[in-house]
Structures are given as C-alpha cells and as structure tokens.
Amino acid sequence: MTLTPPPQRPARSAGRELKEKGLFEAARSVFAEEGFKGATTAEIARRAGVPKANLHYYFPTKEALYRAVTEEILSDWLAAASSFDENDDPKQAISTYVAAKMDLARADPLGSRIWASEILRGAPVIKDFLETTLAEWLASREAIMRRWIAAGKIRSLEPRYFFYMIWATTQHYADFEDQIKALNGGAPLSDEQFQKAKAQAIDTILNGVMP
Amino acid sequence: MTLTPPPQRPARSAGRELKEKGLFEAARSVFAEEGFKGATTAEIARRAGVPKANLHYYFPTKEALYRAVTEEILSDWLAAASSFDENDDPKQAISTYVAAKMDLARADPLGSRIWASEILRGAPVIKDFLETTLAEWLASREAIMRRWIAAGKIRSLEPRYFFYMIWATTQHYADFEDQIKALNGGAPLSDEQFQKAKAQAIDTILNGVMP
DNA sequence: GTCTATAATCGGATAGAC
DNA sequence: GTCTATCCGATTATAGAC
Fold first, then answer.
1. I need a surface site. Which of A51, A93, B25, B202 has the fewest CB within 10 A?
2. How large a percentage of chain B has pLDDT more than 90?
3. Per the structure, how many domains does chain A have?
4. Euclidean distance between CA atoms A166 and A78, whole angstroms
5. Based on the domain organization, do B101 and B130 belong to the same domain?
6. Cross-chain residue pair A35–B175, CB shorter than 8 Å
7. What's the CA B52/C1' D6 distance, rounded, in angstroms?
8. How confident is the model at residue A85 (pLDDT cuts 50, 70, 90)?
9. Residue A144 maps to which CATH number?
10. Three state DSSP letters for A139-202
11. Residue A32 maps to which CATH number?
12. Same-domain pairing of A29 and A90
C-alpha cells in the first residue's frame, strides 16, 4: 500500500499538459487584446484549435483560466523585481532593474498588457497582490533608496514616483506596442532599435537621479 | 423662403444636449473600465439613467458612441501637445510639455484610459490618427530636438524614445491610478501628492537629458 | 478524455405604442 | 421624443453520447 501514484500512469498526462498549455497561451493572447470581459471562450478555444466544450473540461470557468494566467504574470514580475536586490550600488541596482524590466516587456508583452488591462478595470483579481506583496516590495525598496539619498549617492526624491517612472517607461514598450509600431512605419521595433531604446531608458533614468 | 431654421425651435434642443452629454459621460466611464468590447450599452444607459433604447435614439450604434468619445480624446491630446511649441528653450519646452501632460492625466484620467484600452486592442479606430497626425507631430518635434542636440543644448539621444518616456510616465498616473491607489493605502493621490509627483517627473526628465 | 448538441442568459438593436 | 416589449445573434456553461 503506497501513497505515490504508479509512475506508468502519471496524474497529469503529457497530452493534458499540452492541451492545457495551448489553451493557456491562447487565453493570454485573447485576454491581452480584449480584456477579461471582452475575451470570449469561443475565441480562446478557436485559437487553441480545440472545441469550446474542451476548454471547460480543462478550466471549469473563464475566470479560473484568467486567474491561472494572472498568477504566472505576478510570478514573472516578482522574478524581475528581485534584480533590485543583488547589490548596494545605486547605479548598478537601477541599471540592472531597468534592464530586467525592459527585457521582460520585450519577452512577454502579453503579460504586461494583461496586467495593464486588469488595472484598467479596477484590479479585482490582483488587488490583494497590489496591496500586500507589491506594497511590501515597494516599501522595502523605498527604504533602500532613502538610505542612498541620505548618503548623498542619489538626488533627493520621492522613491515611489521614481519607481512609477521605471514601471511606466518599461511597460510602455509592451502595452503601447501597437502605437509604437504605427510610429515606426508599421513595423515593430527591431532588436537593434529595442536595444537602443533600452540603453537610452537606462541612461536617461540614471542621469535623472544621479547627483 | 429661408434656409435657416426658425430660431424658436433650434435643431438641437437643450434637452437633447443634456441627455447626449449624460450618455457621453457614462460611456466614457464604461469604455475606460471595460474597453470597447467589454462595455455594454445596458450599463452605459444605466449609469446615464436612461432606458437602453433611448441610447440608440441619440447614438445609432455602440460604435458611433465610441467614435464620438474617441474624437474628443484625440482633440484634447493635440491641445496638450501644442505646449511643446511655444518657445525654443529646451528646458522650458520640456517642462511645459511634461506639466501639460501630467495635468491632462489628472484632469481627464478616463480619456487616457480609453486611449490605452484602444491601443491594447490594436487601435482599430485611431490607427489612422496614429499613422498620420501623431506621426507628423512626432517627426516635427524630433527635428526640433535634433537641432537642440546639434547645438549642444541637450544630451545626445533618440528623440522618439524620449517622448515615449514622457508619454508613459505622465499617462501612468491616469492609466494605473487604481494600482497607485492600492500602493497609497487605498486612497487616490491627494493634490499635494500629485503636485509632488508632477514636479519630480519634470525634474527627473530634465536632469535626464540636460547636459 | 473528447466532442456534438443544447440549455440558459446576455447584449445590441428595433418596432411600435404613447 | 420617449420608453416598453421584444427580436435575434452571441456567449457561458452543461448534458450526455461516444
């Protein structure tokens, strides 16, 4: 009598993983474009190439699917946020963090857009995260920045508005990608253009706060 | 035989103006929260305090109402954009423009959110504006900034990424207002807090680009 | 596990009485 | 001009055959 399931028949088959992943990715793209309310399960199923009823087998409701998508986004955000920790030199810490946020916007624009759309509708699903985890993250980083200000390492400023500028600037490249595209002759930023934008974001922000 | 309608019976009565305005404002709030597709005419009519069918009397379709809302937003954007014209001193021009954009975000957060939501869904309605009017505005301001760079008045940079930073930072205070609220103990920024944020945005951006 | 068929509800728009 | 009643397509979710 063993508590572990027989290995020849895993609880979650490879096929199930695959279908879930397909629905998950399709859901990300539809939620990013249309928001939670505007997204339809029919469109998600269509993009995933499965019948509509199949979706409800893997995810009981549209909201359950949305919550699954959301949780991954918050997790990715925290991973990028941790880059503000690794050292105590402001120039290094800020450069690394802005770079990480730019890279995340480039690597996962859909995640950034779903976040934006969730905030626009009043953040019903992630409000708790904002008020607890994010607020704590911000408070601790504000403390670090206040020490830098006291030590004369950076200009005197209100740390939270500084972080808002970083979030806004970096996420803009994901959230407003279609606008940027329209202003770039219809083409998305090339890798070269993006690297230039990233370097300039780091430079301008650093120059903005270094004494 | 006159071509002008009799003045005692204006083509658009005061009552009509009033109802249209109510529906228009209600539509702004619903479109800002839910996006075009997520918004429902029933909810718009409910907030305006009129029966649903009444909405269709004043605006033939949901899309017509959305387009009316959108046009006003583009017009307001252009008004704020004109503040980059009034002089040739970079410090003054940039300060004035950032201040104007911050004030617009504070005065009309719904407009900013509707714009953001429109971009998120691929900008079907304002794409033409982005590719023509906005692209021309950007090109002409890039030319001004390149002259400043050549004259050594500001640091060397790619002007368009600089404007993206300004747009992102200022619009963030409207588009992410609910996130900012969650990080501010649940309360929106007070006027004092907002003035501080505005001053800091101007300072950091100026320091970021002045040589 | 999968899919067709369908229930139940919602949403945009209209008809037509007032 | 205004509003009740309603049409009809779309949408979420489920039932039940396979």
1. A51
2. 88
3. 2
4. 15
5. yes
6. no
7. 13
8. confident
9. 1.10.357.10
10. HHHHHHHHHHHHCCCCCCCCHHHHHHHHHHHHHHHHHCHHHHHHCCCCCCCCHHHHHHHHHHHH
11. 1.10.10.60
12. no
Instruction: For residues B102 and B191, state if they share a domain.
Output: yes
- Assess whether B85 and B145 both reside in one domain: yes
Say whether B178 and A119 touch across the interface (CB within 8 A).
Answer: yes
Q: A149 and A118 in one domain?
A: yes
- CB-based contacts with strand D under 7 Å? A 39-42, 52-53, 56, 60-63; B 12-13, 15-16, 19, 50-54, 57
Does B9 fall in a domain? no
Q: Which nucleotide is nearest to A40 (CA to C1')?
A: D11
Residue B63 CA distance to nucleotide D12 C1' (Å): 24
**pLDDT tens profile B129-162:** 999 999 999 999 999 999 999 999 999 999 999 9
- Same structural domain for residues A96 and A76? yes
pLDDT at res. A11 = 56
- pTM beyond cutoff 0.90: yes
Task: Count Cα atoms within 13 angstroms, Cβ side, for A178.
Answer: 20
Residue A202 CB contacts under 8 Å (≥ 6 apart), including other chains: A94, A95, A98, A99, A102
